[in-house]
From TrEMBL:
Domain of life: Bacteria
SUPFAM superfamilies in alphabetical order: ALDH-like (SSF53720)
Keyword Nucleotidyltransferase: no
Keywords: Oxidoreductase
This protein's name: Aldehyde dehydrogenase family protein
Length: 492
């Protein structure tokens, strides 16, 4: 049995992946209309396999299967659900090599990142919600009329989980684990760019004992089956992670039907280095904040704001260090930056870098594609851009860092809060009072101090403003998959 550990991935090879089918009602099957689409390895640009292109008829079947499984799963005692979720974590760890290989192949994620982050976090999420599944309680309430009054927390029903391309395993388990813990059933639609690990997870969930129909996986296009899922009257809740543009549309469609929603959308976090920071540590965190997952990280830190006295030194240090961040084959254990997940993501980054030049930005590192096959872009640092540049204001979602100067704490906070987004933010300071004072004023769902990307299933995250609403992780996520019913019994 293999386990997740710290050993280098020297033996991991690109896997051969069989063509994907749909997983509906505990059965693998071909799509009703027989369509397929290709899956591309972003580090070579070649097709590695194909998966089923589900149609609306398949989505209807998946929702029906989830509906049919709901009563049984909801009635399964929390302790028993917890045992099954623990087994999911065990099987994830036992099959970690397969998961790492498939996820790295599909997304272009360095295996050095994928094993400890994507795969281990997936196991930890199932463990975390297994623990919470045993404590889903209501409360008794004392009221002045003669009665016995209490609340019950009940599952919502069928959850549509719609996930993006960048963290397929983590962002599907951040929905499926709490949804199952609370007694819901799920139809998962992974991103069309990166559908493979969702299919492997379907196998793992079944192996762990999750009953047929409790989790169903339909692969296909957002505009076809994603849209249909949002509108489906049999769906009781939508858990969506993706871009702000699609999220806004999804919220208008599902919100119009009064479906509860969790909306995890785009981000464009500011990372502030104050003059009293430990500068060396701060520069390390700044680099991690923008190269992590090749910059395809909603909570990445693509906007570095630096106190004026440190500005020139920080820009110079970044220009020196960033070109040495190892870029290459995701299956090489030394790689830190892999390819971007697809050509469309890479061209978007190219457009932003071209715009930065027009807006007066100074490229001090990177700035172009790497000279090799696949969708590689050199990690890029752009100094001196004005706040008004679209490159500062919009989400780039690639390995690009803009560096801007500020004079006062108030100015730094105003710049940090000055985009439509509010997912994450961070600051570097050795001054404790400043750390708390600034954290309180930053408009973001999570604030990191003196490091970046510190995440755990126990720590809730989610957005404000155009970054969405609702929280994943923590007990907050479990609560989002239940509703409260009050029962009042007359004692008269
Ligand atoms: P996307 O919005 O293009 O797609 C997300 C999902 O929505 C995919 O499964 C897609 O097929 C589906 N979809 C597309 N059109 C749809 C429609 N009309 N109806 C229903 N579903 C539809 O996002 P992406 O490019 O895959 O992911 C990148 C984006 O996700 C970035 O903006 C990033 O910031 C965001 N993101 C946010 C978080 C977070 O926690 N807030 C986490 C990861 C990624």
């Amino acid at each position: 049995m293999t386990t997740v550990d710290d050993r280098p991935d020297t033996t991991l090879r690109r896997p051969d992946v069989s063509p994907g089918r749909l997983f509906i009602g505990g059965q693998w099957r071909e799509p009703a209309e027989g369509g397929r689409f290709n899956v591309v390895d972003p580090s070579t640009g070649t097709v590695v396999t194909s998966v089923a292109r589900a149609s609306t008829a398949d989505v209807n079947d998946a929702v029906d299967a989830a509906r049919a499984a709901f009563d049984g799963w909801a009635a399964t005692p929390g302790r028993h659900r917890a045992r099954i979720l623990h087994r999911v974590a065990d099987v994830v760890r036992a099959r970690a090599d397969e998961l790492v290989a498939v996820e790295s192949l599909d997304v272009g994620k360095p295996v050095s990142l994928c094993r400890p982050v994507d795969v281990e976090t997936t196991a930890e999420q199932y463990e975390y919600y297994a623990a919470l599944a045993q404590g889903i309680d209501g409360a008794t309430r004392q009221i002045p009329i003669p009665s016995h009054a209490y609340t019950r927390r009940e599952p919502l029903g069928v959850v549509a989980a719609i996930t993006p391309f960048n963290f397929p395993l983590i962002l599907s388990s951040s929905k499926i684990a709490p949804a199952l813990a609370a007694g819901n059933t799920v139809v998962h639609k992974p991103a069309e760019d990166t559908p493979l690990s969702a299919l492997l997870m379907a196998e793992i969930l079944a192996e762990a004992g999750v009953p047929g129909g409790v989790v169903n996986v339909v692969t296909g296009y957002g505009s076809e089956i994603g849209e249909h899922l949002l509108r489906h009257p049999g769906v009781d809740k939508v858990a969506f992670t993706g871009s702000t543009a699609v999220g806004r549309h999804a919220a208008s469609v599902a919100g119009g039907q009064l479906k509860p929603m969790t909306m995890e959308l785009g981000g464009n976090a500011a990372h502030i280095i104050f003059e009293d920071a430990d500068v060396e540590k701060a520069i390390g965190a700044a680099i991690k904040g923008f190269v992590f997952n090749t910059g395809q990280f909603c909570m990445g830190g693509p906007r570095l704001l630096v106190a004026a006295p440190l500005y020139d030194a920080v820009v110079e240090a970044l220009a020196g260090a960033v070109p040495h961040v190892p870029l290459g084959d995701p299956f090489d254990p030394a790689t830190v930056i892999g390819p971007m997940a697809g050509e469309r993501h890479l061209s978007k980054v190219e457009r932003h870098v071209a715009q930065a030049k027009k807006d007066g930005g100074r490229i001090v590192a990177g700035g172009q594609r790497a000279d090799r096959d696949g969708f590689f872009f050199h990690p890029t640092v752009i100094a001196d851009l004005p706040d008004s540049s679209s490159v500062v204001q919009e989400e780039i979602f690639g390995p690009v860092l803009t560096v801007q100067r500020f004079d006062t704490e108030d100015e730094a906070i105003a710049m940090a809060n000055g985009t439509p987004y509010g997912l994450a933010a961070g600051l570097q300071t050795e001054n404790l009072a400043r750390a708390h004072r600034v954290a309180a004023r930053l408009q973001a769902g999570i604030v990191w101090v003196n490091d970046w990307a510190m995440l755990d299933p126990a720590i809730p995250f989610g957005g404000v403003k155009d970054s969405g609403y609702g929280r994943e992780y923590g007990p907050e996520a479990l609560a989002a998959y239940t509703r409260t019913k009050s029962v009042v019994i007359s004692l008269a």
